[in-house]
Amino acid sequence: MYREQLCSLSPSSLLCIFHRPRVCFVIKTCVLISVVVLVSLFIRPLRNTLLYPVWPKPWKHVTTIDLLMMETMTKGPENVVDLPQCLTVVKQTVTEKDPRLDAIFIYDKVSETRLKSEDHKHFLPVMNGKEKRSFIKMFLVLAESLQGAGVKFFFESGSLLGSQRHHGLIPWDDDIDIAIHVNDWLTVRGALSCIEGYVLKVDPIMHWKFYGNTSRYPFIDIFFYTGNDEYIWAITDYTRRNLVAKKSEVFPLSYELFEGIEMPVPRFAELIARKFFEFDYCVSRSSNHKTGEPLNEITLLCSSLTYMYNMFHLDK
Fold first, then answer.
1. Is Transferase one of the keywords UniProt gives this record (predicted)?
2. Which of 177, 201, 267, 297 is geometrically suited to a Cys-Cys bond with 209, CB 3.0 to 4.6 A?
3. What is the predicted pLDDT for the residue at 28?
4. Closest CA to 165 of 281, 308, 262
């Protein structure tokens, strides 16, 4: 009987029974702190300060309620699989002699022997001129196929940053990131699955890859997004750390030169790039896409690398 009465009492009542006011004070203080922290998570400036070391930059401008909605309500489409069969192979529309490829940035004069600092070796070009020309050709094949199918896309993540700070690929990067509305996934699959010389890798998590049929490197990342009246955000959970934006800042899309070729970017591309990244700081690669080997990231002021590459819109 006595045990049942004890079990029915609240924790605070039990403390009174055992006459432990100091423990009671500690518990009440912890509860109060927990409540304050919980409330702070819903006050954007306090939340951003409290979680500064781990909070993704694109999330700092979004309310906690909206982020919770995105995290809990986002679902990808069902039955996402590779196209069962290609009835016809689509011929490439872009050739190696396409004059647009003559405009791309080649960094043949950038070499390890001319570096001003040992740290700068982490920022050497990943691709030589021939490799980069072939890669941009692949991107043109993809872009023209999507545009021909009526699918809108725009640069996101590192390619968005590159489009604004370098007017092209980040020189030490070796992939391209684009975003497409999830409603277009069937059209995208149909447009890119059967192109001569290329492969589309479809994944149910809605992070797809497009690459040559002789090697999976280099590749183009295709991310799908959804949205509401105010925001767009990535379907893939780990990509939402990089892709959450106000719809009014993204649309209508604009067009800017990327490697000398006019390509679609968000309406306020530089504004978004500054929101998403430390624009004036250059970060080296975190992994080798070709081998999968992890690399140590180095962060430097981009102005220290301007003797190697042209950069635009720097403030520092």
1. no
2. 201
3. 78
4. 281
